[in-house]
Amino acid sequence: MMKLSPSRLACLALLAWMPLQASASLLSDNEARKAILDLRAKVDAVARELNARIDTKSDRTAQIDMLNQHEQTIQEISRLRGQIEVLANQVTRAQESQRQLYADLDARIKRLEPQQETVDGQTAAVMPAEKTAYESATAMFQSGDYKGAATALQDFVRRYPDSAYAANAQYWLGNAHYALGDYKKAIAAQEVVTTTYAGNPKVPDAMLNIASSYALLKDTKNARRILQQLVAKHPESSAAKTARDRLASLK
């Protein structure tokens, strides 16, 4: 802030006083003193006015500078907020992409990991693809597509010989051949059930299907033999009850 120093004020007073000095001899001492005091008062008044004007101008300049700085600060904050929003959106998209990636990865892992399934009352580890193949093949049989079912079931037992579904797939393969009227293939398929999967609950039904196939081939001797074995080995099964009725009719 600009101020008039005492030395400058003295200079101004001297300049104003010099014309009076030239005519000092024309004035008395009292008059000269009064004139000098009046001049000093005027100089002081002018100095105060000048300083006030300078102060006002300085204050306004400072206010304008502060307003400019404030506006610049607001603009900078707005720019930074915009950058923050852009970064936040990028982070959100990245997080969503990451979640989707993890979900896809988890789904792929699950397709590769065995799942616990209950098959014929027993809990077993089954691959998802294995289960899907079995269910697809048996669905064909249930829909009446016996030829398609026979092909799918044959492929299943070839690909998954140790599967928990293998015995069931072999049994339904025999039934598919039986439904197609190919009784020799039906007998061959069901004999695999009775030998390879001898402990499976499907064995009594497989034996009954073998006996039925022999009967339709007019081979009564083998039909009776299988029915007798069924009654002897699995007397408490529902298939054994049917076998007893059929043995009575074969006599």
UniProtKB/TrEMBL annotation:
Signal sequence, start to end: 1-24
Domain Outer membrane lipoprotein BamD-like: 130-251
KW 4Fe-4S (keyword) present: no
UniProt key word Coiled coil: yes
Boundaries of every YbgF trimerisation domain copy: 58-117
Domain of life: Bacteria
InterPro entries for this protein: BamD-like (IPR039565), CpoB (IPR034706), CpoB_C (IPR014162), TPR-like_helical_dom_sf (IPR011990), YbgF_tri (IPR032519)
Pfam entry (one): YfiO
Keywords: Cell cycle, Cell division, Coiled coil, Periplasm, Signal
Protein location: Periplasm
Segments forming a coiled coil: 70-97
HAMAP family: CpoB
Job description of the protein: Mediates coordination of peptidoglycan synthesis and outer membrane constriction during cell division.
Similarity comment: family membership: Belongs to the CpoB family.
Protein name in UniProt: Cell division coordinator CpoB
